[in-house]
Amino acid sequence: MAMKLPLVSLPFLLVLFYHCTTAIAQSPAQSPANSQTHSPAQSPTKAQAPSQARAKTPPQAPAQTPIDQPLVQAPSLVPPVPAASPKAPVPAGPNITKILEKAGGFSVFVRLLRNTQVINQIENQLSNSNSLTILAPTNAAFSGLKSGTLNSLNAEQKVQLLQFHLIPNYISITNFQTVSNPVLTQASDTYNYPLNITTTGNIVNISTGLVNTSISGTVYSDNQLAIYKVDKVLLPLGIFAPRPKPPAPSPAPLKKPKKEESSTSSSGDEVPPVAALNLSGGLGFTINVMTSIVVAAVAAVFIM
């Protein structure tokens, strides 16, 4: 019995040794399902084994490394600029030039508005929902000016002349009865540019101190803009007032003539003043003296 015990244990040890070497040769992370999936011809390589092992291992909560932590952005010192909201389009006001061109007879006035760029001021004013009244002179009104009147004005005076025809608020034809004189225009002031408006029935009279005219018709009118036709150009005092003439220079004082020397005779002797008086008296003076002497002698005889 003592000899049979080692013989029985030897096969067991061989089997145990075989199983241990087989287990060591196989991958420790390979599961039975994984061994069944791969055929012997398509066995995983050594490089694929770790990745497959990571894929098949149950999910664990690994400790988060500083690399995996999200980066915290430092607060910026510059405040964020809000996105610009799209601006609503500004509604365009009435087109003055088209209105006047359609009415006809205002080409000179339109040309002056464009050349002086006063039309841009009008359009901006109407685009901002401001009201305006325009007293528009006709072509015949400009033809009635003296030749060279407009050419004699500088650029600033032309702008003032046109602005003198603009009233910065809407006035209907019936509201002219309630305006206060002098009416304020877009020219400089009411002292140098006075505009007086009066009404007689349905007639609206306009006076500038140099020109008297009236509104002869309505070209356009709504609740914001009114354009009226006038038959004369409104000439303001600040530009066309007659300038006083400079005083005439005083005449130069007359020089006194020099005293002439007494004329001398050819012999060099001076003529006595008495003799000169007797010579100038003539024969009549001598007769009068003699007559006086005779009368005196006769009177003396009668007295004696």
TrEMBL record:
Biased segments, Polar residues type: 29-51
InterPro entries referenced in this protein's UniProt entry, alphabetically: FAS1_dom_sf (IPR036378), FAS1_domain (IPR000782), FLA_A (IPR045003)
Chain positions covered by the region annotation Disordered: 29-67, 245-271
One Pfam entry name: Fasciclin
Record's bilayer topology term: Lipid-anchor; GPI-anchor
Gene symbol of the encoding locus: LOC107411302
Primary location group: membrane
TM region positions: 282-303
Record function comment: May be a cell surface adhesion protein.
Protein name according to UniProt: Fasciclin-like arabinogalactan protein 12
Protein location: Cell membrane
Signal sequence, renumbered to the chain: 1-25
UniProtKB keywords: Cell membrane, Glycoprotein, GPI-anchor, Lipoprotein, Membrane, Proteoglycan, Signal, Transmembrane, Transmembrane helix
Gene3D superfamilies named in the record: FAS1 domain (2.30.180.10)
Pro residues bias locations: 245-254
Ranges for domain FAS1: 93-234
GO cellular component: plasma membrane; side of membrane
Compositionally biased tracts (Low complexity): 52-67
